[in-house]
Design brief:
The protein has 176 residues and is an alpha+beta fold. It has a single domain, classed as Hypothetical Protein Pfu-838710-001 (Beta Barrel). The protein is 22% helix and 48% strand. It has four helices and nine strands. It has an eight-stranded antiparallel beta barrel with strand order 1-5-4-3-2-6-7-8. Strand 3 and strand 4 form a beta hairpin. The longest helix has 10 residues. It is globular and about 50 Å long.
Length: 176
């Protein structure tokens, strides 16, 4: 499945969230995530990562564990990823499976996420643990680039606040 997204950095997330709600955006997720990040095998000749995500869903009062691989397709105006994700019922077995394949575990990173559906897009507000990334930001994910651009325009987000860069690249550029 292809994922098309941008990050919105250096904005007041509460103001943006209010704007999303005023335009009819509906809350679809409120969760805490534990993200276990693994490297991609070098044979894939791709940029990306493998992730096990454990979520505590506050809206539906449940937990789930997801296994995902993300590979960067392009990072020009928007970030396009090939993403494959599915639910697993046993975190320890998933972790052990990746370890048995000699896939390198890189880090555990926690974040809180609140997501809103607006038109055909998802606007997600993320706050990582401070040692991972100290600033809240938004992500806009859409089915296609035109829809994504329409949402950015509808929300009056300045273009200099929108980036297709990944979090690692943003952190590097910020000296974090």
């Amino acid at each position: 499945m292809s994922e098309i997204e941008v990050k919105v950095i250096g904005i007041d997330c509460n103001d943006l969230k209010d704007k999303v709600k005023s335009l009819g955006g509906t809350l679809v997720k409120k969760e805490f995530q534990e993200n276990y990040i693994f490297s991609l095998p070098s044979e894939l000749n791709s940029t990306g990562y493998i992730r096990i995500r454990v979520t505590k869903d506050y809206l539906h009062n449940n937990n789930k564990t997801l296994l995902c691989i993300k590979k960067v397709i392009s990072q020009e105006k928007v970030r396009k990823m090939d993403e494959r994700e599915f639910e697993v019922d046993n975190f320890d077995e998933a972790f052990g499976f990746l370890s048995a394949l000699n896939i390198e575990f890189l880090s555990k990173e926690n974040k809180s996420r609140e997501s809103y559906k607006l038109n055909n897009s998802l606007i997600e507000f993320d706050k990582w643990d401070d040692e991972v990334f100290p600033y809240p930001y938004a992500e806009i994910e859409s089915e296609d680039e035109e829809e994504l651009n329409n949402i950015v325009s509808l929300l009056n987000i300045p273009t200099d606040k929108v980036t297709s860069k990944g979090l690692l690249q943003i952190k590097k550029e910020m000296g974090l």
